């Protein structure tokens, strides 16, 4: 009896199965590519040591950009930078410490960027925490709201002058599952009650509303702003999912995008000329967002509350 490796019929069956899986995945993932170069451009990618962030850095570096990996874990970030440098000839990638759960760290990071970088053309707010047990940031904010929304809100505020100086430039906010979200103004920090999914989708809706409110302010400065839904991607962010959801991910993993495909829409918004600012993009195209995400009153109120919580004035 022949082994699997020796039996051509087994390989044929396997190849047919793989082909069917690829067809199924193709229904959910739009293929995309671009030959645009980014020589002389500088980008910052938060959460760049793994997953979508790492793949985004790799692609931008291949196009000639100088890319700053803004990460909390410097060891993992250095490992990621090393991987990218081995894969991309003459990659210009550097690692900088950024803990989005600590406003002091965000201030230190921004100060270092102003002291070391002459320009900033792309700010990709990619980092995030998902459905984790209840905890708070160094400043006392619920972690998912504090990191996913307030951390990136504050970072963008601090770097806006450099983005303006480097115009045309772009800000990209990565957001998944906002359609289920609601902004609980009466309990933004989940102090009255906490559910990890509710807190997560609130923070992701906040990303969309932030994009919506920032876009008209930034446009007059030459800065475009986009919200991006990467789709369901196999990354470390799923580590806090409960057992039933983890079972779903494992069972239907063939439908889940690998990180390099998860980065497509981020890169689409970073590179495609003349994209309408303030819009929401999914699968490399403009997409409809939820009714809550289209609420200008909620967006304006969240902006004001966010400024108050962070102790800043941002008109």
Give a quick summary of the entry.
The protein is an alpha/beta fold and 315 residues long.
Folded structure, characterized:
The protein is of the alpha/beta class and 315 residues long. It has helices at residues 8-28, 51-62, 74-87, 103-116, 143-165, 196-219, 243-251, 259-262, 264-271, 296-310; strands spanning 42-46, 66-71, 92-97, 122-125, 169-174, 223-229, 280-282, 285-286. The protein has an 8-stranded mixed beta sheet, with helices on both faces. 42% of the residues are buried.
Any key phrases for this structure?
315 residues, alpha/beta, eight-stranded mixed sheet, 46% helix
What percent of residues adopt helix (DSSP H or I)?
40-55%
Structural class: alpha/beta
Per DSSP E runs of 2 or more residues, the count of β-strands stands at: 8
Strand order of the largest sheet: 3-2-1-4-5-6-7-8
Q: Rounded to an integer, what's the Rg over CA atoms?
A: 20 Å
Q: What is the H/E string?
A: HEHEHEHEHEHEHHHEEH
Distance between the termini: 76 Å
Sketch the major β-sheet. Answer: 8 strands, mixed
- State the low-pLDDT regions, or none: 1-6, 10-25
What is the residue-mean pLDDT, rounded to a whole number? 88
Shape: globular
How much strand content do the residues show? 5-15%
Number of helices: 10
SSE topology:
Elements: H1 8-28, E1 42-46, H2 51-62, E2 66-71, H3 74-87, E3 92-97, H4 103-116, E4 122-125, H5 143-165, E5 169-174, H6 196-219, E6 223-229, H7 243-251, H8 259-262, H9 264-271, E7 280-282, E8 285-286, H10 296-310
Parallel strand pairs: 1-2, 1-4, 2-3, 4-5, 5-6, 6-7
Antiparallel strand pairs: 7-8
Helix pairs in contact: 2-3, 4-5, 5-6, 6-10
